[in-house]
Model the fold of this input.
Amino acid sequence: MRRNNQGFTLLEVMVALIIFSMLAITLSSASSSRIDGHIHVEHKLLANIIAESEIAQLRNNPWASLIDGEKTLTSANRQWLLKTKINIKTDVLPGLNIPVKEVNVSVSLQDKPDDVIQTLTAYIGKDD
Done:
């Protein structure tokens, strides 16, 4: 009696499916990690641009008007929260006795205000 072996057995098909499903899970996990990393880098870059822009705007304001503050803005289809913290420093330029304000700008997404993405610090001297 001659047997016709033209197909795969059920066991062979199941083993192949298990191998392919494990490969698919590994690839989807790697893709997910890569996408999360890309989103993080994108947020970091946008937050840095926003913080630099805010510091540039603050440099154009009179020295006396630099105060702590908080504001929201929309950029790149996202709502951002900017927190500005001002500290007066007298020891930045020793011997010159010029008052300087340390300006700290922190940027976060508005829906995650405690998760600061970027903080930049600048020093602005009294302009008189």
